Amino acid sequence: MMRFHVLILACTTLTFAACGSPAPEEVESETVVPVTVEHAQTGSIRASIHATGMVAPAPGADLMVVAPEPARIAEMPKAEGDRVAEGDVLVRFEIPSTVAEVARQRAEVERAHAQLDNARAAQTRARELFERGIAARKEVEDADRNIADAQAAGAQAQAALAAAETTVARATVRAPFSGVIARRMHNPGDVVEAVAGDPVLRLVDPRRLEVAASIPIADVGRVRVGAAAHLVGGGAAALKVVSRPAAVEQGTASVPVRLAFASPANPLPVGTPVQVNIDAEEHTGVVVVRSVAIVREGEDTFVFVATGDKAERRPVMLGLADEMRAEVTSGITAGDPVIVEGQAGLPDGAAIVVADKP
Q1: Is residue 11 part of a domain?
Q2: 344 and 242, same structural domain?
Q3: Is residue 27 part of a domain?
Q4: How many structural domains are present in the chain?
Q5: Is residue 159 part of a domain?
Q6: Largest CA distance in the chain
Q7: Residue 313 near residue 21, CB atoms below 8 Å
Q8: Residue 331 phi, psi (nearest 5)
Q9: Sign of the four-CA dihedral 335, 341, 345, 351
Q10: Whole-angstrom Cα distance, residue 338 to residue 325?
Q11: Helix or strand or coil: residue 164?
Q12: In the list 3, 21, 103, 157, which could disulfide-bond 109, CB 3.0-4.6 Å?
């Protein structure tokens, strides 16, 4: 009996010990995300139109030399890359047929002059004989007609001589403007054809270069002549729109736009492909934030606003945007602390700590 009571006492003691111990507490932990915020501001923003293009000479700043007739190149004093002054000889062609043609036409002119002199002398004799009653009126009329024919023949010969001399003059090509030899396709001694597909050399004025760009047809109305633009990268050279088409053909997807460099000191050679941004419409007095603050998920666009120690997700509507900022038309107001760093993957209501307050 004593042994039985001892066992009961031991069990009771264990039971009381178990019931008297405190239950373990459930501890919830939440990760605090460090973020950087910037206040949304009221300001101005201008849209830009992105386009691709190529550096090209402006109208009148490009010359492609082609032989006036099939000929042999007698002289090309300038090498590729050489600078050329206005009036310098670019190419001298050797066209033997033109020299012979000039000589022949000069002989024709002299022959026509002699015929005219003979016709005038005959006319004088015929009139004297008619006045003395020896010659008939028909002889005077024939003499007058011979003078007219001789004058016409002389004018025709003179025109042919001028044409031949013009051809000879074209055998020597001089620079119509100062520039640089952009390319030489032939060398002295080469025989060339008088066709555009067989050019001899190309002269370009590097001070008068521009960008020939193409923009989508939907953006034509947003581009105005005189609008500022700049190259994307490459020193962001300043440009200005100098022309856009007044009309486009139906079904055209893109249209050409010409942009002049603001400074003639352009380091890019002809043919360089470039990207340009053209200034378009401007909105003033609007709420703007940095583009990095915008979060997109599918068709939804939103930002996170720091509210105390929590991140509040706010859907927003956007307006214009440039390379660095975006216009917010609804969802936030100027002065709201918008998270610009640390918002990636952040859930609504997440705990945050502002690492760098503005």
Answers
A1: no
A2: no
A3: no
A4: 4
A5: yes
A6: 194
A7: no
A8: 115, -30
A9: negative
A10: 13
A11: helix
A12: 157
Cα gap 134→305, rounded to integer Å: 123
Last residue of a domain, one of 170, 192, 225: 170
Residues 294 and 276 in one domain: no
Domain of residue 85: give its range.
Answer: 66-91+172-204
How many whole angstroms separate alpha carbon 135 and alpha carbon 127? 8
Q: How far apart are CA 172 and CA 95, in angstroms?
A: 10
Name every residue whose Cβ is closer than 8 Å to that of residue 113 and which is 6 or more positions away in sequence: 154
* Residue 6, SS3 per DSSP: helix
State whether residue 58 is helix, strand or coil.
coil
Are 314 and 325 in a shared domain? yes
SS3 135: coil
Phi and psi torsions of 319, nearest 5°: -115, -120
Give Cα separations from 49 to 52, 247, 275, 278, 320 (angstroms): 10, 19, 11, 5, 11
What pTM did the predictor assign? 0.62
d(CA 341, CA 347): 14
Closest CA to 199 of 209, 184, 181, 219: 184
Residue keyed to tokens 């736009």: 257
CATH of the domain at 71: 2.40.50.100
Nearest C-alpha neighbor of 201 from the set 209, 210, 192: 192
Helix axes 96-131, 137-170, angle to 10 degrees: 160
**Separation CA 327–CA 329 (nearest Å):** 6
Same domain, 308 and 289: yes
In this structure, what CATH number is given to the domain that contains residue 248?
Answer: 2.40.30.170
Look at residue 15 and tell me whether its pLDDT is greater than 50. no
User: Which pLDDT tens digit goes with each residue over 248-290?
Assistant: 777 788 899 999 998 876 668 899 999 999 999 999 999 999 9
Compute CA distances 172 → 72, 75, 101, 105, whole Å. Answer: 12, 9, 17, 20
Domain boundary among 170, 193, 218: 170
Place of tokens 């002059």: 113
Looking at the predicted structure, is the pLDDT value of residue 356 above 80? Answer: no
Please report the sign of the dihedral spanned by the C-alpha atoms of residue 230, residue 231, residue 233, residue 234. Answer: negative
Contact, 88 vs 114, CB < 8 A? no
